[in-house]
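User: Can you recover a sequence for this backbone? Please restate the input before giving your answer.

Assistant: Of course. Working from this structure:
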């Protein structure tokens, strides 16, 4: 049986809600065969990050070469990359293997506030990885770090998206999770020519662990099956909306999103 394949290059979340666990669950729900290269093992639950154990750059390269030598991902995403050595290793392999269906989720800080990207590594993201990206999906704080500007108005959000496309991303999505303007939770898209919004309804919930990972993995899965970026973004937004609406009550902190809601619950109710 022929299937489309997607690869995530990201950290492991022992709690299962974010990172590679979230990505692989999302790929599975969207009928895509999932592969992973682990960049760091995190000891994590819904309350926070207890420890971070990075993989060496050599270890990351070795995983990517094993995948590249044999399996051919139709789309690739990056999540937590932790340090500049790992960013360089990931960008090198992505370039060498010509993996140009690339979604970069520039993960920096976990919901509980723990640092998932070392401070001096944001420059490496801009220099090596973002120029290779088809889609980049920063939240507002991440877009602020990458652009060096404070984003406190709709105009500035647009300006930041232009800057990020200027760095080399084909399409920039500035997500609205941290954009507390209304009961809408819309994400701003800029494709180098036009701006548009992915409309969503803000759900009043604390169960948002892994929202960014799930959203970017859904975009990746849709690109892997050959959807256009616009179609992929639209489906990913529906996927994350259902995943947050039916968020899972697990643990006492930020519970995880519900990866099966889009396929098994969300669509049935729509
Ligand atoms: N409370 C919420 N209700 C509905 N959608 C949400 C909510 N929080 C985040 N989202 C959506 O989840 C996706 C990830 O956004 P965000 O939480 O900003 O990313 P991150 O996890 O990287 O901080 C976006 O599509 C955003 O609009
Ligand atoms: C291993 C890992 N990767 C990413 C996140 C960010 O999670 P979120 O998607 O909620 O921003 C996380 N908490 N842990």
């Amino acid at each position: 049986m022929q299937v489309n394949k997607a690869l995530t290059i990201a950290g492991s979340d022992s709690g299962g809600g974010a990172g590679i666990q979230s990505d692989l669950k999302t790929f599975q729900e969207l009928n895509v065969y999932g592969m992973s290269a682990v960049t760091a093992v995190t000891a994590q639950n819904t309350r926070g990050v207890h420890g971070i154990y990075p993989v060496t750059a050599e270890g990351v390269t070795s995983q990517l070469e094993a995948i590249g030598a044999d399996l051919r991902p139709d789309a690739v995403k990056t999540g937590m990359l932790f340090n500049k050595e790992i960013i360089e290793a990931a960008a090198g392999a992505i370039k060498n293997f010509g993996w140009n269906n690339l979604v970069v989720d520039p993960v920096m800080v976990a919901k509980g506030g723990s640092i998932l990207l070392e401070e001096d590594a944001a420059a490496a993201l801009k220099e090596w990885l973002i120029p290779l990206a088809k889609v980049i999906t920063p939240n507002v704080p991440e877009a602020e770090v990458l652009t060096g500007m404070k984003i406190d108005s709709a105009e500035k959000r647009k300006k930041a998206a232009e800057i990020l496309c200027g760095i080399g991303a084909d399409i920039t999505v500035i997500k609205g999770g941290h954009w507390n303007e209304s009961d809408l939770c819309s994400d701003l898209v800029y494709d180098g020519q036009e701006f548009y919004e992915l409309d969503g309804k803000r759900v009043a919930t604390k169960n948002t662990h892994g929202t960014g990972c799930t959203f970017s993995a859904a975009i990746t899965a849709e690109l892997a099956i050959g959807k256009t970026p616009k179609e992929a973004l639209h489906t990913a937004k529906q996927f994350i909306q259902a995943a947050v609406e039916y968020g899972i009550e697990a643990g006492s902190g930020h519970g995880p999103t519900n990866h099966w809601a889009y396929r098994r619950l969300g669509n049935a109710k729509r």
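That completes the design. DSSP finds nine helices and nine strands in the chain.
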